[in-house]
Design goal:
Mean pLDDT: 97
Number of domains: 1
Strand order of the largest sheet: 3-4-5-6-7-8-9-10
Bound molecules: phosphoenolpyruvate, manganese (II) ion
CATH architecture: Alpha-Beta Barrel
Shape: globular
Helix content: 25-40%
Distance between the termini: 26 Å
Strand content: 5-15%
Low-confidence stretches: none
């Protein structure tokens, strides 16, 4: 059960050797998509140097248009494994289909369920049967209750290692890609013992807004953030407009020092 009523203390979920939840404030970072060995290794080294603990990167990409880059697939997973071995950072990557679960488990430390699949109950049950940590992103138009019940599917299938993630919801506002719902972070922390992360990259869709909203995430009590970074965002194959440059990532980590150290 994900409710605090049944477990008053915070759950701590371990991604590799990195604890998420409880007293920790964790920063996960990396590119939206794995694009090549040099792209991934360069950004991985950079974010690691500045204090990221978990490497993100999409290999199976849920793109709005079928004509956009769909990800490197298994080759991307292999590059993530290689980057993990070189940097020591465990990895998180999205699994889109039940048929991909075993392969993603082979190479990756934490399975991401993307916003578009938050209510794909067959997939939730499948990742629930793995026992691997799962980063569950809130659906684009999902209520907080629906998000918590989606987490319940994974836990009920036998996997307690769920991390919730607020990544912005669709509202009438069009000036930003999504509207980051910080209410949800505070409420989910009260209602559930599971760790709650914030994704300010998809939450805003604007790289200049990622650092201020990361500070807000820390202040509201999130257990960490997951952010997109690319050393050459204008060349990125997906989500370049929201990717932090290496320098911007360094600045972000500088500003988060009080939270990261207090944790
Ligand atoms: C992503 O993390 O790159 C992603 C596609 O996220 P979301 O499912 O939140 O849109
Ligand atoms: Mn993305």
């Amino acid at each position: 059960r994900v409710s605090r009523d049944v477990q008053p203390h915070d759950s701590v979920v371990h991604i590799g050797n990195v604890p998420v939840g409880g007293q920790h404030f964790v920063v996960m970072a990396g590119p939206c998509s794995v694009e090549s060995e040099s792209q991934l290794l360069s950004v991985a080294e950079r974010v690691k140097t500045h204090g990221a603990r978990v490497l993100r990167g999409g290999a199976f990409k849920p793109r709005t248009s079928p004509y956009d880059f769909q990800g490197m697939g298994v080759e991307g997973l292999k590059l993530l494994k290689q980057a993990s071995e070189l940097t020591g950072m465990p990895t998180v990557s999205e699994v889109m289909e039940i048929s991909q679960v075993d392969t993603v488990c082979e190479y990756i430390d934490c399975l991401q369920i993307g916003a578009r699949n938050m209510q794909n109950y067959g997939l939730l049950k499948a990742v629930g049967e793995t026992g691997k940590p799962v980063l569950l992103k809130r659906g684009l138009s999902a209520t907080i209750e629906e998000c918590l019940l989606a987490a319940e599917y994974i836990v009920d299938a036998g996997n307690p290692n769920v991390i919730l993630c607020e990544r912005g919801i669709r509202t009438y506002e069009t000036a930003t890609r999504n509207t980051l719902d910080l209410n949800a972070v505070a409420l989910m922390k009260q209602r559930s013992h599971l760790p709650v992360l914030v994704d300010p990259s998809h939450g805003t869709g604007v790289r200049e807004l990622v650092t201020p909203l990361s500070r807000a995430a820390a202040a509201v009590g999130a257990d960490g953030i997951i952010v997109e970074s690319h050393l050459n965002p204008s060349e990125a194959l997906s989500d370049g407009h929201q990717a932090l440059t290496g320098d911007m990532f360094a600045q972000l980590m500088q500003e988060l020092t009080p939270f990261v150290q207090a944790a």
